[in-house]
Amino acid sequence: IAGITQAPTSQILAAGRRMTLRCTQDMRHNAMYWYRQDLGLGLRLIHYSNTAGTTGKGEVPDGYSVSRANTDDFPLTLASAVPSQTSVYFCASKRDILTDTQYFGPGTRLTVL
Amino acid sequence: QKEVEQDPGPLSVPEGAIVSLNCTYSNSAFQYFMWYRQYSRKGPELLMYTYSSGNKEDGRFTAQVDKSSKYISLFIRDSQPSDSATYLCAMSAVRSQGNLIFGKGTKLSVKP
Fold this sequence. Notes:
- Chain A is an all-beta fold.
- Chain A is built from no helices and 11 strands.
- Chain A has strands at residues 4-7, 10-13, 19-25, 31-38, 42-49, 56-57, 64-66, 76-78, 87-94, 103-104, 108-112.
- In chain A, strands 2, 4, 5, 6, 9, 10 and 11 form a 7-stranded mixed β-sheet that branches. A 4-stranded antiparallel β-sheet of chain A has the order 1-3-8-7, with no helix packed on it.
- The radius of gyration of chain A is 13 Å and the shape is globular.
- The model of chain A has no long low-confidence stretch (mean pLDDT 93).
- By secondary structure, chain B is mainly beta.
- Chain B is 0% helix and 54% strand.
- Chain B is built from no helices and 11 strands.
- Chain B has strands spanning 4-6, 11-14, 19-25, 32-38, 45-51, 54-58, 61-66, 71-76, 85-92, 101-102, 106-111.
- In chain B, strands 2, 4, 5, 9, 10 and 11 form a 6-stranded mixed β-sheet that branches.
- Chain A binds chain B through residues 4, 31, 33, 40-45, 48, 50, 58, 90, 92, 94, 97-107, and chain B through 6, 8, 32, 34, 36, 41-46, 49, 88, 92, 95-100, 102-105.
């Protein structure tokens, strides 16, 4: 099935723990994105990657890191989780930076206690 | 002032009503305008895309862009309960950069 998968679907995490959210797309899209969505704040860009091997910082990158070793995968790592990172995280992709349609994954609900 | 402003609602309308959803923005460089629909506990999906000023129609949905007023709208005709969702506007300035700026979303409920 073509599209974006995210794992896990949801997670409860103790503060201070390390966590990696996984994102995989099978559309051979070059550009990928990580957003967090919080009530009253909307979607905010955390990190992005325009093509495999490159990454960039978005609006709210602190406390998060990403890597893009290949086209399909774009994991997001929280090195030491804090309660303010409780959110719903969405991965998105698009064919390349010159196209406009971003496709979103189903999201990961993360709670940091 | 936020780059993109969108009334969060909630907005409740009866089935069959015409719905008007709006966003204002401050960056005059924005040229690419999108509307995403997000059902509860799902990811956003692209609904409408418009370049620069003008109207675009797709079935019951019409997107309007007024760059002189920095104002975009989404109209839904003959609204259905299945239209109940959160609608997010999004826009970008430089196509080669490609990063979208999203509004906070308006929650719409269409009552049967």
